[in-house]
Design brief:
This protein has one helix spanning 2-28. By secondary structure, the chain is an all-alpha fold.
Length: 51
């Protein structure tokens, strides 16, 4: 019976940790994950030193 309680407590801790990790990943996810069209690209001048 003691081993069963230990396993249940461990499973509870794992579920709580996974829930917290899921919330953290959800919060850190970028807001605008959609594709960027060519019209929205910033105008960046060419670097002559890169050639």
């Amino acid at each position: 019976m003691s081993a069963l309680r230990t396993v249940l407590k461990l499973m509870f801790v794992v579920v709580v940790a996974a829930s917290i990790a899921g919330v953290v990943m959800l919060v850190k996810r970028p807001k605008d994950a959609g594709p960027i069209s060519v019209d929205e690209w910033p105008d960046v001048p060419r670097n002559p030193d890169s050639e």
